[in-house]
Amino acid sequence: MDPRLQGLLVGIIFGVLLQRGRLCFNSAIRDVKLTKDNYLMKMALLAIMVETIGFQLAAQLGWIKLNPLPFVPLAQIIGGFLFGMGMVLAGGCASGITYRVGEGYITAFVAAVFFGITAAAVRGGPLQFVNKWFGKPITTTNNPTGVYAATDGKINLTIANLLNINPWIIAIIFAIILLVVILVWKTTERKTTGLTWLWGGILVGITGIVAYISQKSYALGITGGWVNLFRTTTGNLDISKGVPYNWIGMEVLGIIIGAFIAALATKEFKLRMPKNPQTFAQVALGGILMGFGAGVAYGCNIGHILSGLPHLAISSILFTIFAVAGNWLMVWYLFERK
């Protein structure tokens, strides 16, 4: 099967799950601080736990090579912090604004456009020069059990290959910690008409594993998909030539289609316009901050948090810490300081 078709199908499934589970990492992180609501956070943690074991198993079986995202400390610190602030302004994370496009949110579409354009400008576009400011990736040659992808012998850093120990050890410890948190942390009561946090977490985690096996080079992502859609659609207008859409670009398109199908089926699709026109400026700024942050940091909340933490990648751990910090700072500024 054509990889692009595989990406589209995986994206449709992911889009349905995002829409029915209402899974948005901006909401998950924000709600823990703002309303003490952990419902979506527990869904996210469960998905990460499932992927942590699933990624390792798939790698040990030889179906994939683990390929953690590059570790560029300053890029993940600044990029993560800007991304965290941006998703509060945009009203959703990278995956949140993507699936809400399929639900009919005009503000999500505006945020997604500015997110995609800015990320494309940073990744190979007119703003690519900014990447030089952050330095080169820090790598290792350690490859315990041979499960990591290497380029000229260089491997992106994880806790396991940094310590040069069997990655199963770190994965099991991390999965147990997550399981304890999930079991001990009392779930916020919430009425839901879609997926519960339990089923949502399990199914999203399984989808991430399937995505990795399908794409081979990585699991689920968002930023690279928007970059591919914008760059390919606007950069190749000669219809006589092949259009180089790729797996992740089709995945993002699939998310929108899947969310649209799910919203239609449950009568939740509706074109929604903000009452205050200034909201457009706010979400556009949020999209720009998210696009710049994800562009320089080599990934967004899906690339780093959902797909990166299961690798125990140093880059993804650092990005997550500063994305949460940026999110909570903007939550304080917009909602709590008065």
From TrEMBL:
Keyword terms, alphabetized: Cell inner membrane, Cell membrane, Membrane, Transmembrane, Transmembrane helix, Transport
Pfam families: Sulf_transp
Coiled-coil intervals: none
Domain of life, source organism: Bacteria
Topological category with respect to the lipid bilayer: Multi-pass membrane protein
Predominant place of localization: membrane
A single GO cellular-component term on record: plasma membrane
Transmembrane domains' residue ranges: 6-23, 44-64, 70-92, 104-122, 165-185, 197-214, 245-265, 285-306, 312-335
Cell wall biogenesis/degradation is among the record's keywords: no
Xref: InterPro entries: Sulf_transp_TsuA/YedE
Compartments, as annotated in UniProt: Cell inner membrane
Family stated for the protein in its record: Belongs to the TsuA/YedE (TC 9.B.102) family.
Protein name: Hypothetical membrane protein
